Amino acid sequence: MSRHLTALVIGNAAYEGSSKLKNPGNDADDVAAKLDACGFEVVKLIDCSNSDLDRALKRFKRSLVGNDVGLFFFAGHGMQIDGENYLAAVDTDTEGEVEAKHSSLPLNRVIEVMEKADTTTNIIILDACRDNPFERAWTRSSASRGLAPVYAPKGTLIAYATSPGQVASDGRGRNGAYTAALLQHIATPDCSIESMFKRVRNTLSAATRRKQISWEHTSLSGEFFFNLSLGARIDDYSNEALSDSLFVLDEAKASHQVIRALKSQTWPTQNPAMEGFTATGANKASLDSLFVVGRNIYQAACGGSHGASAYLSSFVTRTLGMRAEKRKALLDGMLFEVFYEPKARLREEFKTRRFQDLFFLQQHKELSSSFDFIAECLLPDAGRFHSIPGKKHPLVVDVVTTPDPTTSGHVLESLHCGGASILWLEDDDYVAEPGEPPMREKLSIEKFEERLAEQMVVPTHLLTINYLSFRKKGHERVHFPYGWTARKP
Predict the structure, then answer these.
(1) Do residue 278 and residue 321 come from a single domain?
(2) Strand order, beta sheet including 104-106
(3) Residue 201 shares a structural domain with residue 283
(4) In this structure, which of 40, 179, 186, 422 has its CB flanked by the most CB atoms within 10 Å?
């Protein structure tokens, strides 16, 4: 199940007409990070002027095209004027209500943009009910405090930090009280959006001693989950296949006999099983069974089984005659085994021994659906990767070295990718004594590049390595510091 999600996140704090708010910038940073982890394409903006808000909404309108879900988050000052709600820019003219209204972003405009988009679900979250000090100079009744209730079009949920007509104070910690509660619950696995906001309301009420009660107006026509667990997101295979420790073997099934043989971890049993595993037999097996077969083929190949290794290396030819959906299930299982434990939890250390051989298959167009599958599985854990495996995103690494004065080798000093330094000390036991250089391993240029690709979990055909300090000829040696890595922290 593939979802296309887009979000615009805004935090306004540095208001010109009042004292600076403390939390909205942090609120925007933290909400954007959570949404990114939940699979949203996020645009985050801090301290927007009125013209910035106008441009941002126009870009957001374009980004909604082709997406299933749109989300708008705003933290900062909000106000109601003549019964309508406005989100204040940092340069909103606060001289009077008319000036403020025409130099702020009308909430109704946001609602209209999202209503007219071809999205199935629209979510608007407003931590914008703070008491605005510049309003005190206006002639206002108490009924116009906070934000006013609004109509939510079909497929839309509008969430407020507090009840209509009430105000919320800026928080004392890193986040506003409402956003802090939201961050606590938004990524709860398999929790519907309505249930999630109920949890937010309970947490917020407890944290503020019932002084602040959040509120939502919704006309959603279907269920939405910010964070779906793997089993809920991936409907191609059963939970028993994904968590193959639960998969029950039936000796009457030929595919299950192959699985048992591969699980034996003995080459004399594994190798004949692979020799007898044919496209004809695979076509008779269920998709779940083939998925588990694939997991165990990769496991056996990493364990040194010649038969499993040969099958992996000649996958395209060995699967000729296999129906497309059967072939996909087999390859899906192999890819899944790289990253997931038998209980379908993401591995602490990925199984990368045969990673390059397996991901070499990504260059075959007819196998692309399997790489789309593993990318979708890994999307919520994108932070673990320099680039999500399965996506065809090329990476460039710049290598900085200095010449070793005693050899013809090159001492690795730093690695850079995407504008960031990616070489870091993973094992503190290798910290050098004061005044002493770190211990280094001398690697051939080939071994160095293999290690870099393995640590970064990037297929070599998508990795470009630039040596900034020397021209590569192929015979160089790179001195790699022990205990250091290019893995994503």
Answers:
(1) yes
(2) 78-81, 84-88, 104-106
(3) no
(4) 179
